Amino acid sequence: MKLIVGQNISIEQPSTIDIDFAWRSLESNLNLTVHAFAFTNGKIADLGQVNPNKIKLPDGVLRDSSDRHFEVLFPALAADVDRIAFYGLLPEKSDFSLQAMSHFQIRINHQQGDRIAVIDVDAFSKKHKSALFFELYKHNNSWKLAYKLQPLNTHRVQTLEQLGLQVVKKNIKKVTPAAAQSKPKPQQQNQQQSPLLASEPALTEAEILAGINLKKGQNISLTKHFKYCASITCKLNVVPKIEDLDLNVIALNSNNTLHNVKDFLYRENTLLRGDGVKLHKDHVLINLADIPADVNKIQLLITRRSGGKRISSADFIELDLTGTHTEQKIAKYVSETSDKNYNTMVLLDIYRQAEGWSIRAVGQGFSGGLDKIGERYKFSPPKLRAIAQAPVNENEALNAVAIDNSEDHAKHKKQQTLSYYLMGAAGVVSLFALSRLLLLPLAAILAGLGWFMYQRSSKALSSVHEEQLERLVLNIIKANNYQITAFEIAANHPVNIEQSTKVLDKLCDKGLGSTAFNEEGSVYYDFSRLKSTADKNHW
Asked: Cys-Cys with 328: which of 239, 323, 352, 394 at CB 3.0–4.6 Å?
């Protein structure tokens, strides 16, 4: 559900919810921070002396190291807390404003993954230094969400003071655009560091259970922390959705080269030899036990098929890793794309070490696209052209799904034609019946028989047509990886939106699918359960 300003919604059966903030910054040194504050009866919870750089979160609210992902554990909130407000704050005396952000989006999900709401935050002006985004509040013992969006002209310290907090003011330095540009850039040596030499940070049990939020260059041992996840699903999420952005996979040997060009997976070559890696449109299935022995590294990357377009068109790119069978959260890597003039980016490495398999967040872009990747790994990549889907010929589409029913269709059509003749004969006989009353019963019998045959054949033809239409829609669902909208069917096939919706709803009523929401909050139909059992059992 996409919310508008002022809208309130209920949070059904709240336990734990995930909140993700994503934005694209026009300034590399914006330093916007998001904070959560607890209130009781309209008064903010007392935090004592507050350091504006280290603001304590309320009990029951967690934030990861990226400062953009929050978890709200409703059972862990203090009993008297009736409101949690989320603010975005710029530093004291910053010369920047919230206008430096674009494509600001907030996503609120149940921890099980079900979408609660999507918020597209509207534009700000040059005066705005802070903002109240939304609130979670308790009403009649139920939790609700209210989209507020109240821009403020006050910076972080002033906003904290207006909320009623006691702020410690010291060592506040002014941040200017000139200072941001003159600030020395970090050394690039860490980016080039071999993953075999990179150290792994200490992880707590809670971080492992909740899934690790990877930072660029970070390495995590799969074998050590997730030894029961022999099969992994890597799911790509791009906001906003970009149609010509492809997910690709490269399998590299110990010499950092390909065994042959078939070890590069793309939309026309989706299966690695040995069946250890299978590429889908927006996710990759990896079975570590089936990866060939000579493959030392599996590299996941994204590519724009249109060479002139850049990845910076996306606000952010997220890669989620989960256990295929257990659905255990393993890790998540979010790569921001602002100021990235790339059309290809390596997101993640899954590589062998002496003790087993590990993963590394890479986040390295290439402006030369796949040609640059080919130079690096000594192979000639295929040309990924943006190919538009040819619309299906209407007659061919219907004939293809109707071929099994052609005999029944012809049979019922003949019966319908015969019914016309009978009713016509009844009309002729009725004319003669005007002079001979004995013909009236015969006219009535012919008319009744003709009407009966017409009704029966019409119902049969309607049933045949519905079956043909259902088969057509099922073929379209399969061709679209089991996820489709009624508009997509109606746009390219001889079916209107009303018919498409009727068939899709009928299939869902049979238990074959369900409705869901995509990243933009639009409704689509998910028929993943129709996938072949052989494919599921293998993975």
From this structure: 323
